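Memo to structure team: turn this sequence into structure tokens by end of day. - J.P.
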Amino acid sequence: MTVKEYNQSVALYSDNIYRFVLKNIKDSEKAKDIVQDTFEKVWLNHANITYSKVKSYLFSAAYHTLIDSVRRDKFKADWSDADQNNHFTTQSYSDLNEILHKALDQLPPVQKNVILLRDYEGYSYNEIAEITQLNEAQVKVYIFRGRQFLKNYLVKIELLV
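Reply from structure team:
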């Protein structure tokens, strides 16, 4: 891949990768870092990447960088900043977008990622399989199970009232 092709890939895909990562971790600064690390990996391997495969490579690298970041941060907790009185509410709230994001957060990480790649980013099952290094049948199963969970979760009347 040439420098010009690399710059084109940055222009074309950086926003999509940022959105994908941000949907998963909900921290804009960390999402920006992951996107930057992803493009750094691509630049370091640009000689081995063809421009026709750069989109798939970018999302694969972003996905794996995201997983590494989540695993690293899983064991970190700063309990001194926690507000003990902020763990419950008595108000009803019906912002459907927020409810959908809460539902997505209930999914296991693999199901959440494949649903985001399919429904938010519009990837085919085959492309998702390449990005996540799963086979196509596993991708279909995870998407089906995730959608079933979301369907059951979202039809609860208590959430909407």
